[in-house]
Amino acid sequence: MEVKVARYAGVCYGVERALKLAEQAATQSGAVHSFGPLIHNPQAVSALERRGVQVAATLDEVVDGTLIIRSHGVIPDVITDATARGLEVVDATCPHVSKAQESAKTLAAEGYFVIIVGEADHPEVSAIRAHAGEHVLVVQSADELPPRLGTRTVGVVVQTTQMIDVLEEVVAALLPRVSELRVCNTICDATAKRQVAADDLAEEVDVVVVVGGHNSGNTTRLAQICSAVNERTYHVETPEELDPAWFAGAETVGVTAGASTPGAQMAGVVARIEEMSPASPQERCAHEAESR
């Protein structure tokens, strides 16, 4: 059974940067907390906790020391409040997320009604929304657009890990309804490359395994993309989740990973799949000959 890894897969620059900043903070004296999970990868977050980086859901949980802003960003008030409390703030917001925040802020300042394409309950979208002010709407698809917008001047930004097809559908639905439409395509280039590579891989192999947090939006979207092409697609976080029955009769297995999945985590899954691969008749004969 041959294992193929997607051309673009695994941890992106923004996540790698956040992890490095957190690891550096962990070597300093004093308490270290991240505001919410640093990234959406339970294994990576647990590893940071073992190094002393604890997750705080609110600022009230942080008495002193260092506060790390998660890669998804936070609402502006969090940083202002943390600074006022005397905390050392390390901003690990992904630069692409920061760009989306600034785009939303600029659109609002220029008088556009801001529409954010993304998951309303995702922390990244919550932060982008806070930067856009009061006149903002979040939709995850064109179907969620209201019958009446109340304005004909609209600006659009998008969650960095969304699919380009979704953005295009929303824009197409808005065009006939507005007199002015400004679109800021804030989808991360790394995300787009991983999505295209995953789609290509799913067409080439018998089985697809997507590695990354079950709570990761970008990883979940990779699984959705692959499932649309190859019904034998499975999303796992760890090698222990792999089921040998998934690979019955398969000659090729494709592996991809979300942008919040460290390389070691993906490598562990690949190694386990290779261990589960039954030896071919030629390999069995070669092994028997060597043991004589």
Write the layout of secondary structure elements.
Elements (H helix, E strand, L loop, with lengths): L1 E4 L7 H14 L5 E4 L6 H9 L2 E4 L9 E4 L6 H9 L3 E4 L3 H15 L3 E5 L5 H10 L3 E4 L13 E6 L5 H11 L5 E4 L5 H16 L2 E5 L5 H13 L3 E4 L15 E6 L5 H14 L4 H11 L1
Parallel strand pairs: 1-12, 2-3, 2-4, 4-5, 6-7, 6-8, 8-9, 10-11, 10-12
Overview of the structural elements:
The protein has 292 residues and is an alpha/beta fold. The chain has ten helices and twelve strands. It has helices spanning 13-26, 42-50, 76-84, 95-109, 123-132, 164-174, 189-204, 217-229, 263-276, 281-291; strands at residues 2-5, 32-35, 53-56, 66-69, 88-91, 113-117, 136-139, 153-158, 180-183, 207-211, 233-236, 252-257. Helix 5 (123-132) links the parallel strand 6 and strand 7 (136-139). The longest helix is centred in the C-terminal third of the chain and has 16 residues, at 189-204. It is flat. Residues 280-292 have low confidence and may be disordered.
